[in-house]
Specification:
With 334 residues, the chain is α/β, with parallel strands linked by helices. It has a domain of 233 residues: 3-Layer(aba) Sandwich (Rossmann fold), CATH 3.40.50.720. Helix content is 45%, strand content 16%. The strands form five sheets. Strands 3-2-1-4-5-7-12 form a seven-stranded parallel sheet, sandwiched between helices. Strands 6-15 form a two-stranded parallel ribbon. It has a two-stranded parallel sheet with strand order 8-11. α1 links the parallel β1 and β2. The structure holds nicotinamide-adenine-dinucleotide.
Length: 334
């Protein structure tokens, strides 16, 4: 396998920094372009965020790890067309992985304007650069493009009927990329992850909030009755799958679900948490509006075409994540 120059736009986020470390360990040369201004150090310091100090510590830890792994980070807003065109030319990547976005459904519904700007404006800039010379673009879409699942599991051919701003913009991004493929023959891969959890996430998704509240002796709130099922996916499975998309020709011009491939109830995740924090207190509240009914995202296509393997059930992945949190918490408070 030849070493590739891989540009990660929005690469200092949760997925991006874990992916960059994976790629360098596989012998590739990752470069990160990130403004650190969305769900990251520069925005968090200006916002009224719960656990602010803790998140600053986690985000600084990301930067330390990137430095330790000799991964180049260029701080730049990817909305700035002229600056990024010059920068991307200089980097001269074989592959661009586009991760920049407002990556949270609730935040997107509250601020559609900035979601469009950071998600689609930045994507169009990437595509405009990538069309000449033709550069493989890997786009991070989402399970939210499907909207309410019509059945217990969906494959990539299922009809997409997103609900709300986030899923709709993700689907718009997919269509935009496909149009660049039609018009400019641009090689692409679209990835649909779901319900990710793992080390150094600050996005306040369910698995993270559970641990943070449990570790601080705070009550855990579940939106709904906890019987909803999600295809919880450990970050290591996703980044391994994305790395395969960088390395396998079969990934070109394809859309893949990259998840664990088997949905589990939120209450099952909670039971794993309780095995580590037996005194946790739980209360149930109303389900969030605009949250679609989801389930399993089938991964058979990725297994067949790129040899994708998911290795971490929540029994394995979530325990690893909890253990990491406990040790980070201890260091953070010492
Ligand atoms: N985490 C999940 O569960 C999940 C699930 C499905 C899809 N996704 C998608 O995967 C991608 C990455 O997700 P994540 O969890 O790493 O998100 P994240 O919020 O942790 O990271 C996004 C990064 O993009 C950067 N960014 C945003 N706008 C930018 C701009 N204009 N210029 C430069 N950098 C900019 C931010 O500073 C941040 O570091 C997103 O597109 C997200 O929608 C995530």
């Amino acid at each position: 396998m030849s070493s590739k120059r891989i540009l990660l736009v929005g690469g200092c986020g949760f997925i991006g920094h874990n992916l960059a470390i994976k790629l360098i360990n596989l012998g590739h040369k990752p470069f990160i372009v990130d403004s650190l201004s969305v769900n990251n150090l520069r925005s968090i310091e200006q916002e009224d965020v719960i656990n602010k100090k803790l998140y600053e510590g986690i985000l600084e830890n990301r930067l330390e790890l990137l430095k330790k792994n000799n991964i180049e980070l260029i701080i730049q807003d990817a909305r700035e067309y002229h600056e990024i065109s010059k920068l991307y030319s200089k980097i001269d990547p074989d592959i661009i992985i586009h991760l920049a976005a407002v990556s949270h459904a609730n935040k997107s519904n509250k601020d559609p304007h900035s979601t469009f700007d950071h998600s689609l404006r930045t994507l169009e800039n990437t595509l405009d650069f990538a069309k000449n010379p033709k550069t493989h673009v890997i786009y991070m879409s989402s399970s939210m493009v499907y909207g309410n699942f019509n059945s217990l599991d969906v494959d990539e051919g299922a009809i997409c009927k997103p609900i709300g701003i986030y899923g709709t913009l993700k689907l718009s991004g997919e269509l935009l990329i496909k149009s660049y493929n039609q018009v400019f023959d641009l090689p692409y891969t679209i990835i649909r992850p779901s319900a990710l959890y793992g080390e150094r996430c600050v996005s306040r998704r369910v698995g993270q909030i559970f641990i943070e509240n449990a570790i601080q002796g705070k009550e855990i709130t579940i939106n709904g009755d906890g019987e909803d099922k999600l295809d919880f996916t450990y970050i290591e499975d996703l980044v391994s799958g994305i790395a395969s998309c960088c390395e396998k020709k079969n990934a070109i011009n394809q859309t893949f679900n990259l998840t664990y491939g088997h949905s589990r109830k939120i209450n099952e995740l909670l039971n794993i948490l309780k095995s580590e924090f037996p005194n946790s207190k739980v209360n149930y509240s109303k389900k969030e509006k605009f949250m679609p009914e989801r389930g399993t995202l089938k991964t058979e296509k990725a297994k067949k075409l790129i040899n994708y393997k998911s290795n971490f059930s929540i029994e394995d992945g979530y325990i690893r994540y909890i253990n990491w949190y406990k040790s980070f918490w201890k260091k953070f408070n010492s």
